[in-house]
Amino acid sequence: MCGSAAAQTYPTKPVRLVVAFATGGATDTFSRVTAIELTRSLGQQVVVENRPGAGTTIAAEYVAKSAPDGYTLLFTDMSTHAITPSLYARLGYSPRDLAAVAPVSSSPLIMVAHPSVGVKSAKELIALAKRRPGITCGNSGVGTVTHMAAEKFRMRAGIQLESVNYKGGATSTVSLLTGELSLIVTTIPAAIEYVRAGRLVAIGLTAEKRAAALPDVPALGATVKGVDAAVIAAVFAPAATPRSVVERLNGDFAKAVDAPKSREIFAANAAEAIKLTPDAMQQALEQDMKTWAEVVKATGVRLK
Question: Percentage of the chain surpassing pLDDT 90?
Fold first, then answer.
């Protein structure tokens, strides 16, 4: 009865969507379009609040320790969320402190280079890296899926890259544009317009095949197998949030990803909408944890 009452009265005030990345990247972009749609369906303002840093753990810990009432939600990359338990020796929270609410979208990452590097394909990059080990490769934060995707590519290709960690895809892109970096692995929204303008060179998507939305961008998997990685935007709530509220939110996010504007934004960024029940999302997360734990162990990266 209490759970039913909670669902009927929720929400009675604005909802905060805490984004684990800085503004400008894919996760932030997708959070804002879904927040607009969610505001309409919930009848309350959904406010996006960016709390980037420490491989998404700052935002995750903040939400995990928030009141479990459905008014503070975590909007993050589920792949990165799956990486952190095996990457960090100590976390200020446990993955069990956050409940799966709803997935939103999935999109591959993109590896791009500064034109001065002089490479236009994964094959050319690998050849250069073997001649000149230690080429700098930026990412959107230590422990993020962009970081681990770069590490996975490095291992599979048998080359040495020097990781440079930022606090978001947009910031690493700025450093690449100024020539401070040679490469970055980042989200598509953070880099694609610069590729189209000729200011950056697309080396490839972290996928086995090309994306229909970006037919001119090759897939890294065509040259190096086993390098697939994606940004899976997803929503979590504090673990003790009433089940009825979680299910209400799951339904509202499912409606939000179907909205015409959401579909438009997803398509522009080579993303696909995802719908899963909270239980199915949790099962997918647990499988991802196992997969990424193997990559983390192979890289030898371990954070305090």
Answer: 80
Where would I find the H helices in the chain? 2-9, 26-42, 57-64, 78-87, 122-131, 145-157, 169-177, 188-196, 243-258, 260-268, 278-299
Asked if residue 175 and residue 202 are part of one domain, the reply reads yes
Burial 28-46 (b: 16+ CB within 10 A, else e): bbbbbbbbebbbebbeeeb
Tell me the two tokens of residue 234.
Answer: 């997803």
Flag whether the pTM goes above 0.85.
no
CATH number for position 90: 3.40.190.150
Do the beta carbons of residue 249 and residue 102 sit within 8 Å? yes
222's tokens: 């065509």
> Which amino acid is present at 148?
M
Regarding whether 218 and 113 lie in a shared domain, the answer is yes
Residue with tokens 């990559």: 295
Taking residue 126's Cβ as centre, other Cβ atoms within 10 Å add up to: 19
Peptide bond into 11 cis (omega under 30): yes
If asked whether residues 122 and 167 sit together in one domain, one would say yes
Coil, strand, or helix at residue 262? helix
Which of 196, 222, 248 lies at the terminal end of a domain, its last residue? 222
Mean pLDDT of the region 188-206: 94
The answer as to whether 22 is a domain residue is: yes
**Tens-digit pLDDT profile for residues 278-291:** 999 999 999 999 98
Query: DSSP labels for 73-139?
Result: EEEEEHHHHHHHHHHBS--SS-GGGEEEEEEEEEEEEEEEE-GGG---SHHHHHHHHHHS--EEEEE
Gyration radius from the chain CA atoms: 19
In the DSSP assignment, the letter for residue 58 is H
